[in-house]
Amino acid sequence: MRIGAITAERGEPLERTTMDTGTEKNLALLRTAYTTLESGDLDACVELLTENFIANLPGLPDPLHGREIWRLGAEAMLEGFPDLKIDVQDMFGADDKVAVRVHFRGTHQGAFQGVEATGRQVSFRSVEIYRVEGDRIAEEWVSPDMIGLMRQIAPVPAGH
User: Helix, strand, coil proportions of the chain in percent (round to 5)?
Assistant: First the structure.
């Protein structure tokens, strides 16, 4: 018997599925969401969310509710970094949840969080968990490295 393989009594490999169909659908949904966001089609992105979408964001005492909350955040990101590139580094799921480790890159070409465009290249990561209901994203828990991002676009002190 080879390590890592399941074999039948006669040494024939057994068929084995690594994920159920629901999990595969959820992973495909999230891949579509990231691709659609990167393309800048926020209307199509919003259609991937449930009507009562819930956003759990670091630093806030309570979750935010609604598709428009998500849209506002996405608009702010795309206004600040219109060439945003999204590299999904890891994605896996179980039941109705999908976990993602993602790397964002772009050029600071517009105002973001009160900081005017610097023209600097930025790179930051996020760990994100999503809950799926049916064929839509119902909830997110995101932990982007906003401190790292803001350090990259912070004004350079006078004299430097």
Answer: 30, 35, 35
Half-sphere exposure of 27 (CA within 13 A, CB side): 14
Is there a contact between 107 and 121 (Cβ–Cβ < 8 Å)?
yes
Q: What is the mean pLDDT of residues 42-70?
A: 96
pTM of the model: 0.83
CA-nearest of 67, 66, 158, 75 to 112 is 75
3-state secondary structure of 12: coil
In whole numbers, what is the pLDDT of the chain averaged over residues? 89
Q: How far is CA 8 from the centre of its chain?
A: 40
Give the DSSP per-residue string, 129-160: EEEEETTEEEEEEEEE-HHHHHHHHSPPPTT-
> Token match 């909830």: residue?
139
**Mean pLDDT calculated for residue range 115-127:** 97
Q: CA–CA separation, 15 vs 126, rounded Å?
A: 35
User: What is the share, in percent, of the chain residues with pLDDT greater than 70?
Assistant: 86
Question: What whole-number distance in Å separates Cα of residue 153 and Cα of residue 122?
Answer: 8
